[in-house]
Amino acid sequence: MRTLGRSLSGPALADDSRRFRKVALRLIPFAVVAAIAALILFPVRRELMPTSTPALKPLRYQPLPPRPPIPLAATVPAGWSHRVRTLILYDHSGKWAWLGEMNATMTANLVGHFGSFTAKPVADYKAGQVEDYTATIYLGSFYGETLPPSFEDDVLRTSRPVIWVADNISELERRAGDFRARYGWETSVLDHSPVAKVVYKGQALTRWTHNSDGIMRYASLDRSRVRVLARAVPANGTSFPWAVRSRNLTYIGEMPFTYTSETDRYLIFADLLFDALAPQTQQRHRALVRLEDINPESVPHQLMRAAAYLHRQHIPFGFGVSPEYRDPQGKYGPPPQLSLHQSPRVVAALKYLERMGGVLVEHGYTHQWDGGSNPYDGVTGDDVEFYRVTESADGGIRDVGPLPEDSLTWAEHRIVAANEEFAAVGLRRAKIFEFPHYTASAVDYRAVSYRFAVRWERSDYFPGLLTHRPIEYAHAQGQFFPYVVHDVYGSKVLPENLGDIAPATWHAYKERLPDAIVRAARANLVVRDGVAAFYYHPFLKLTYLKQAIKGVEKAGYTFVSPASL
After folding, report:
1. pTM (2 decimals)?
2. CA-CA to 492 of 20 to 30 Å: which in 115, 178, 261, 361?
């Protein structure tokens, strides 16, 4: 025993020992109360404990190693073919030019499941080009775009598949002169009434009722010649065609990228692409699951519990890890920073996950920003790492733009440092990358494409990517995929299209229970060769994971390893 200022032995030690025992006995009730209070207060320590700003050591980076060559074959889905080529034409004039490019970007990502694409403003179309491609997709993003007569004539003349989406179909009708006689249908006016669902293959898919852009109605439609592919259902219970096909022309009566969700009619467009680009595709429904937001402060037994369950069910899985924990504002208390190599028990748990069939995913480096709340508290797992975002007074999230220090070298340093930390503790180097909170700048996506062939996430896209003009960060748009794609950043992207489990609302993230995961999985069954994927935080009750897994399997999916894709 040691006390401050002196060392004790013999009788003095015995007397002090007796006095200590008496004091200790008197303090036992207080200790019990304190222990109970600690157990109660610990989960809410963020709000109740005073904090001070800790002094964090700056992150240090080694010189960047050479970029490994990544062959195209590693970045494209299985079945992708050079022979499948899609021409994407889009509106690109006036103040809404950015919108036309965004719709083309999201279409390009989807056709990246099948093969290559060429995207250009419809005004740049040259006569005869439709014959050089497997299929042509025109995206009418706004009324009044002047269409080249050569394009309209080629659409009317070709036997190759043409998908016409939303606006300016009236121009094609006028150009044909005999459009109704030729195709068996004629458009009328846009229906702006609330439409909450669109039925496709017998499945009711959702549509945001506040979307007032309208859906095209029909003045006439010959059912003996026209196939109605999907039907819009207004609130009064009636229905009218949402998408039709006659001869080689498919027409979709609205833009499917507006206000999408996991159960949205967007899935119809994703599936209709098979008819034009891969009509022989057979039904197949696979599923993925990922354990999420693991870092050096994670609780090992929670990780192992989830992995053990998945292994017993013969379900392979991924697990996303941020190898550096940081709390620059002292929100959670000590420690303010912790590296994976300083957390041997967490490392042991991660190795156990690998033995149980888990595939390591690099989930950024720190999953936060040292420069301040981004948008919440600056703590690993809570905040955004590769983009500047803020939280409004009403809890909404506003994308600001790239971080002040954002650059290709800055992003590469973080990407490489994370993988070096994995290697240093004896884990396999990650081959899959996932941006924290699915948010990054165009520069950061490029940095990842130099080091990884595969991302697993939803992703942000911006005007300027197709036109090679300066990126317009004010018009960012996220996109999820119901199958593996090769996106406009040049990477293979694995789907995450079901969302996550959230038993309680946290800031802008609303409560989401396993039944929502299962509903989304059932909706995605309309995609003939789709992949349904969700993620789970291991600190939640294991019951939530079990319910989601069983529900997705019962819906008709087979879980596969992300490595198999």
Report:
1. 0.90
2. 261
